[in-house]
Amino acid sequence: MNQHLTTLFPNAISVAIKREDLIHPFISGNKFRKLKYNLLQAKTEYYETLLTFGGAFSNHVAAVAFAGKEKGFKTIGIIRGDELGSKISENPTLSFAQNCGMQLEFISREKYRLKSELSFLENLKQQFGDFYLIPEGGTNALAIKGCQEILTPGDAEFDYICCSIGTGGTISGIINSVLPHQKVLGFPALKGDFLKEEIRNFAQNENWELITEYHFGGYGKVNEALIEFINQFYKENQIPLDPIYTGKMVFGVIDLIQKNYFPAKSKILLIHTGGIQGIQGMNVKLRNKQLPTIDIYV
Q1: Quick check: pTM over 0.85?
Q2: Model confidence over 270-285: pLDDT tens digits?
Q3: What angle do CA 39, 45, 48 make, to 5 degrees?
Q4: Which of 215, 217, 255, 216 is nearest to 233 (CA)?
Q5: Strands 14-18 and 49-54: what pairing?
Q6: How many Cα atoms within 13 Å fall on the side-chain side of residue 26?
Q7: Which long-range contacts (C-beta less than 8 Å, at least 24 apart) are formed by 87-95?
Q8: Is the dihedral of CA 82, 87, 92, 96 positive or negative?
Q9: Cα(55)–Cα(253) distance, integer angstroms
């Protein structure tokens, strides 16, 4: 569903947000899209176990854990940071995953960098037995297929489609499904534009651009301005935004509108990729730093 913002933007620009966060209470947004065909494939190939990777507050890990519980898979999460093993109870995301039945394995950041190497994966198979591998963030060809279903025929009215970027899977699916008159703008949550090559591995056309100025210092980094924006946006629209991905993207789009980046009368669609479960964990970090928290109750 698309929810139109009631804010009066300059130059007769209109903005709507596609509420992918409402697809499912626990497997929301792009995680639902990315897992859809992977779970079907795992069933087709008679796998009983899903194994994936993620960090301390990973939306993906939480989604795989719940999806596995719902669909009858055993799940294993390889978690970045061996120091987290003794802190599960302090971490809402990891506690949720464990309560869903996910087996958590904590490894050092050095080992975690090897997650794509065949020898490392073979060692995991020796340790855990056979499993269906879902990569960090969930991005693979089947995930792209799922993300190509985000846009619908009713979205043809929009000139710009905007979304946040983690591993590049969601935007790749969107790029492959937009119409010729539409342009896709991606807002990376990480520093730099190195994701261009990853996206080109899956994207089938060139009507897209990365906007790299709204990462707020890098992945998982926030400041008081972003928190204030998320809280104010919720008060005005009753739409919760996560601080890692969608919040930064929406902040960026509205800032670009104020800076006259978009032509007059542009129709802009923002893709809400979910991730609301991460707010609780982010608030723990913010309180520890004695910073304002995200005042959203979902």
Answers
A1: yes
A2: 999 998 888 888 888 8
A3: 65
A4: 255
A5: unpaired
A6: 15
A7: 90/284, 91/56, 91/57, 91/281, 91/284, 92/57, 92/277, 92/280, 92/281, 92/284, 93/56, 93/57, 93/58, 93/59, 93/61, 93/62, 93/277, 93/278, 93/280, 93/281, 94/56, 94/61
A8: positive
A9: 27
